[in-house]
User: Fold this.
Amino acid sequence: MVRPGGRSARVQAAVHEAVRDLLAEVDRDALTVPLVAQRAGVTPSTIYRRWGDLQELLSDVAVERLRPDTAPDDHGDLRTDLTAWAEQFLDEMSSPSGRAYIRDALLGDPDGSNAGQCSAYAAEHIGVVLARAGARGEDVPDVETAMDRVVAPMMYRILFRPTGLDAAYARRLVAELLGGARS
Amino acid sequence: MVRPGGRSARVQAAVHEAVRDLLAEVDRDALTVPLVAQRAGVTPSTIYRRWGDLQELLSDVAVERLRPDTAPDDHGDLRTDLTAWAEQFLDEMSSPSGRAYIRDALLGDPDGSNAGQCSAYAAEHIGVVLARAGARGEDVPDVETAMDRVVAPMMYRILFRPTGLDAAYARRLVAELLGGARS
DNA sequence: CGCTAAACGCAAGGAATGTGCTTTAAGCTG
DNA sequence: CAGCTTAAAGCACATTCCTTGCGTTTAGCG
Assistant:
């Protein structure tokens, strides 16, 4: 049985907060389960039982951290909306902490559900932007194409070639998507 | 000073071989440094000193494993060459062991050099294919575009959405690149 | 209000990690 | 080819972490 409230919830919140705090304070490989447990006021065995592993815990925290909190801005037209979103996305994700969170999310993720969640966040935002544009009568590509042409290249470079990434690259990807696809 | 030969080289080879063998035999999280050391006939401290970490060792082995051993086949025209390469790439990388190696390569890689090496392998192969096509007089896109349009989407889906990947997807990406870019 | 079982705390055993010190041998020099 | 220098491996030990069994707390429910 899952227990979503009460002590279990308090423990989960305390542990997540401890991880977030410690990630900002100590070095990455200095982060250990006992350290997190002490900060959270919890026994190490509790963390091992609930998460099984430091990597799975980090993956859990990372996904929560990567969840977007606000809907993408509405600037009135698709190109501007998508460009702004892509620039912000690249900026956040290519930062050192962003890259660390992405790696954590990918890492302790045996079945790939956490990574899939990250992708779903991006797809959701893009879906909102495209739907708004469609409602305005604009000619829009589908979400899958946008993921392949904009999100995937940015993410690939963040992970595999983390140099020379800037807002201009994001703008170019959006321009190639919108220019080449339809309009 | 680096010592490329002699005992150091033997130890490195033995350790790499031990890792490869054990990855095929035991469960992933059952793989420990002492286990590798015993199989390789080496002291655990040697591994800790040389690699520092099990993840860095795995990353090291993974990059070596992901290095392509043969040049891409020459079928006589760009579309066929690139399609064949993409199909093979996706097939290898999306397999469970391929995904595991990719994750290992990304994992124990503080400065991103190992991940960059993996990307360089793909870029090199694509470069060869494109150069051959160019020498034949075909109209070819540049390597960066091919990476963005073909490699990045495949890799993104392998990592973040590992379902429903097949050769048809690889063919479609190549077709969209060649159809949309020039001819 | 009492029951049940999931989740946490505690403690101990075993395994892994990391480090000084010694020993081996690779590569250079005369 | 002999001797020297020093990087790298072996060894032993201390520390820390991981794991599990058992008792206790408490969330969720009748």
User: Anything to note?
Assistant: Chain B touches chain A at residues 29, 53, 103, 106-107, 112, 115-116, 118-119, 147-149, 151-153, 155-157, 159-162, 173, 180 (CB under 8 Å).
